[in-house]
Amino acid sequence: MHLLKKETLILKMQIKFTEAQEKFRNEVRLWLQDNLPKKPLQSLDTQEGFELHREWERTLDSGNWSMVTWPKEYGGRGLNLIEWLIFEEEYYRADAPTRVNQNGVFLLGPTLMEFGTDQQKNKFLKAMASGDHIWAQGWSEPGAGSDMAAIRSTAVHEDGFFTINGQKTWSSRASYADWMFGLFRSDLSSERHKGLSFILTPLDLPGITVRPIPQLDGEPGFAEIYFDDVKVPVENLIGKEGDGWKIAMATAGFERGLMLRSPARFQQTAAKLLALYLENKSECSPAMQSKIVDAWSKSESYALSIYQTASHLMAGGSIGSESSLGKIFWSELDYMMHETALKILGASAELVDEEKHNGAKWIKGFMFSYAGPIYAGTNEIQKNIIAERLLGLPR
Amino acid sequence: MNFVFTDEQLQFKETIKSFLAQECTPESIRLGWKENSPFNQKRWDDLISLGVIGSNLSEEDGGLGVDQVALTLMIEEMGYSGLPEPVAEQNFLINDLLDIFPKDIKGALIDKFDCGSKYIAVAHSQNPHPLFVNQSNGLILLDDNSCHFINKDDLKFKELKSNDPSRSLSKILSIKNSIASSDNFEVLNQAMASRGSLLSSALLLGLAQKMLDLSSSYVLDRNQFGKPIGSFQAVKHMLADIAVAIEFARPAVYRSAYSLNENNPKSFLHCAHAKYMSIKAAELACRNSIQSHGAMGYTWEMDLHIFMRKAWSLIACWGNDDSQQDIIFNTLKSSKDEIGVLYTF
């Protein structure tokens, strides 16, 4: 018996870019060259910097670059995930500004595509792409962090409105953002994952108080939001009442996975780390080589994995808990690379004046890399998810 | 860009997977150990009938022309089952190099030894103790500057005992009447080192996955404090860490196979990357698996060590993580291309 049939030998796997994809890359590159701000923008966590970053979102939108995978009618280009990854590669290669609206374009956007009504898509996607609505995320509460199902903020449905009460916290960008998407308990008798609803709210409504919280770098990158009898029209409900958990989990999948953390960012960090090492080689211990190789190897693997995932999705596949694997991997990698950079810089690592010291960016990135294993669900929670849903271990 | 396997590639994987699940069980491996003959001739013959041994030879050489990616998927399954026979070695180090071997040697391999079916052992600086010389019909030996083919009868060798009873190793004492050539030696030497890295990576991936599966099922069964130990976070997290390491080693291994298929000039780097990542995954799989098994994992009776021993051997053969790091570092630091996003594909 001969089980291997030879008529089946066609190699369709293609781990390289097509000419059209290279052409697209070039188009992105040229546009960025012509349109990038002449000098780096102020931090987006300052009022002024925030508005400069909003301006940049508008510029991106003027070239239809805000989110290339979206349909044209919403300001996108109707392109596929591979082209999006290419866009991201050129974006990071050009050191373009951080996307101030990443909560919107990377997280809420895909959520609306999947769960929003046509009316909601029309209302929110275009304004998101253009930077008119900058979004904050409202999930965590003082009593609901890793245990997100412990959410207590309420949204009571009555006469075409939700009346919202409670408190959200660790809400990134909320200090200056225009809108927030959040998870609220709409069925007051419900417990845990049931009875939650996914609701969008402007942040300037009466009854809302935003209290900025300075982060490790001293800037108010996140905020607490208090709701005191805030009236939100029922049109702002996404999906069905009570379906909030399911929808939020889809959004979280985007956050942990390829949307928010496309590989280009880590590949460019690894490349900069190699350059930093080569510049300072004479002062480095030989042991440093192994860290440089580890950084490159892992960022390369992450990129390969994401291209494999994107190809899988484009072929009609889906991903679920697998995004937890990636979240652990990129957050550990990011920390390791920044830690290595600080070791190379030695006693100069603490010098933070970016205009005077080339290495000054690293310590800021280093501090931010501490956040990676915490946000979007701590790595410990991700490991529980992997163990329970992928390996079949008991809760 | 389309980083997905074809149905055909997956079909090869499934075919060998179901064969090995039947024919290469821990019991059959242990039987080979007990009888001091880990090379199971019947299983080898069955793998010939199945078309696996010569699968990646070209059709004119009597094979199926299976590509390196499909082969890698199949080899992962060989690792998963702990297959003792040197099928992966024959596939990558003999068949896949057939057109790179000097002409006389290729001729000898094809004419006399029907390399679609007869086993040829390989000795190389990265793999100095060839496998199963006693079961072979000859030896390919790469020394410092030339490639030799030696008929089994012209070999004097001494058997060496491996820590992995599935591996029968030899020391070559002397050779005579070798067909030798230094044509194209540098290319051949590097091509063999790359393939050695790749095949050991693919085996390690399979072994790591097997150890993870054994551990996941053990921690479900074993109760302490009145519940399965797999419900404790400390245990869950150890196993989740293995899953993460395997997940990000896999695409590196598949890409390196594709890279060989494409004759990509960076395939040497890609194979080193594959081996580096899969060593890290396999090392973690060994440590965390035995830890999650507790004292049971430290016994001869538990099957875990069948796979752990093979992993330890394969980590060291065909370049360990340190030597792969050197390859990667030397390539990166002297690259004329921009390192970063443009370097990957």
Break the fold down into its secondary structure elements and pairings.
The complex is a heterodimer of chains A (395) and B (345).
Chain A: H1 19-35, H2 47-62, H3 81-93, H4 102-115, H5 118-129, E1 135-138, E2 154-158, E3 161-172, E4 179-185, E5 196-202, E6 208-213, E7 222-233, E8 237-238, H6 244-256, H7 264-279, H8 288-314, H9 323-345, H10 360-369, H11 379-390
Parallel strand pairs in A: 1-4
Antiparallel strand pairs in A: 2-3, 3-7, 4-5, 5-8, 6-7
Helix pairs in contact in A: 1-3, 4-5, 4-6, 7-8, 7-9, 8-9, 9-10, 9-11
Chain B: H1 7-23, H2 26-34, H3 41-50, H4 68-81, H5 87-94, H6 103-113, E1 121-123, E2 138-142, E3 147-151, E4 155-161, E5 168-175, E6 179-181, H7 185-221, E7 223-224, E8 227-228, H8 233-261, H9 267-293, H10 304-316, H11 321-333
Parallel strand pairs in B: 1-2
Antiparallel strand pairs in B: 2-3, 3-6, 4-5, 7-8
Helix pairs in contact in B: 1-4, 4-5, 4-7, 4-8, 5-7, 7-8, 7-9, 7-10, 8-9, 9-10, 9-11
Task: Provide a compact summary of the structure.
Chain A has 395 residues and is α+β, with helices and mostly antiparallel strands. Chain A has helices at residues 19-35, 47-62, 81-93, 102-115, 118-129, 244-256, 264-279, 288-314, 323-345, 360-369, 379-390; strands at residues 135-138, 154-158, 161-172, 179-185, 196-202, 208-213, 222-233, 237-238.
Question: Can you describe this structure?
Answer:
The complex is a heterodimer of chains A (395) and B (345). Chain A has 395 residues and is α+β, with helices and mostly antiparallel strands. Chain A has three domains: 20-100, no CATH class; 135-243, Butyryl-CoA Dehydrogenase, subunit A, domain 2; 257-390, Butyryl-CoA Dehydrogenase, subunit A, domain 3 (Up-down Bundle). Helices cover 44% and strands 14% of the residues of chain A. Chain A contains eleven helices and eight strands. Chain A has helices spanning 19-35, 47-62, 81-93, 102-115, 118-129, 244-256, 264-279, 288-314, 323-345, 360-369, 379-390, and strands at 135-138, 154-158, 161-172, 179-185, 196-202, 208-213, 222-233, 237-238. In chain A, a hairpin with a 2-residue loop joins β2 (154-158) and β3. The radius of gyration of chain A is 22 Å and the shape is globular. Chain B has a domain at 186-334: Up-down Bundle (Butyryl-CoA Dehydrogenase, subunit A, domain 3). Chain B has eleven helices and eight strands. In chain B, the strands form three sheets. Chain B has a four-stranded mixed β-sheet. Chain B has a two-stranded antiparallel ribbon with strand order 4-5. In chain B, a hairpin with a 4-residue loop joins β2 and β3. In chain B, α7 packs antiparallel against α8 and α7 (185-221) runs parallel beside α9. Chain B is globular. At the A-B interface, α3, α7, α8, α9 and α11 of A face α1, α7, β8, α8 and α9 of B.
